[in-house]
Amino acid sequence: MAFTAAHSQAVQFTVTGGSAVTLNVTDAVWDEEVQDLIVTHTGSGGVQSRLPGVLDGNGDIKANVDAAALPWATSPGVRPGAKGTLTIAVGGSTVYSLPVMITKLHFQSSNPSNTVVNYSFSFKLDSITGSITRAT
Q1: Quick one: 133 exposed, middle or buried, by C-beta within 10 A (0-12, 13-18, 19+)?
Q2: Whole-angstrom Cα distance, residue 67 to residue 97?
Q3: DSSP per position, the chain
Q4: HSE-up of residue 134 (Cα within 13 Å, Cβ side)
Q5: pLDDT at site 111
Q6: For the segment 28-51, what is each residue's pLDDT rounded down to a tens digit?
Q7: What is the 3-state secondary structure (H, E, C) of 12-42?
Q8: pTM (2 d.p.)
Q9: Which of left, alpha, beta for 17 (phi over 0: left; psi -120 to 50: alpha)?
Q10: Contact 38, 50 (CB under 8 A)
């Protein structure tokens, strides 16, 4: 199995109606989960029975602000309520392509003498925006 350093992989956001912009990502997290439906019945012998429910997902991206492409500008369009496609390359032949809605935007400058301003945003899977493609 080949290992690919995450920092060498591209993360792009394409706001609905806009064009893809590569983000200066320092950290990316993607969590996939399904609802846990309890279906225990008299035939399960007193042991919990489960079925998978609806697929859901959420994540967080941390990045450095790019003065030439401010996060809230028309493109890349990173702002709460914005919908679009987030692509995360993980070294395979296909990237993760996630239809998302951005739910939170956070700015931070940890050191007054530091010229780098960091930001992060949270997102959630949104099937209205498109279909999920898993990296292969």
Answers
A1: middle
A2: 26
A3: -----GGGS-EEEEETTS--EE-EEEEEEEEEEEEEEE---GGGTTS--EEEEEEEEEEEEEEE--TTS-TTSTTT--STT-EEEEEE--SSSS-EEEEEEEEEEEEE---TT----EEEEEEEE-TTT---B---
A4: 4
A5: 66
A6: 899 999 999 999 988 888 899 999
A7: EEEECCCCCEECEEEEEEEEEEEEEEECCCH
A8: 0.83
A9: left
A10: yes
Tokens representing 13? 């956001």
Which value, to the nearest 10 degrees, does the dihedral of the CA atoms of residues 13, 17, 19, 20 take?
Answer: 20
Q: How many other CB atoms are found less than 10 A from the CB of residue 124? A: 14
Cα distance between residue 55 and residue 50, in whole Å: 15
Contact 107, 119 (CB under 8 A): yes
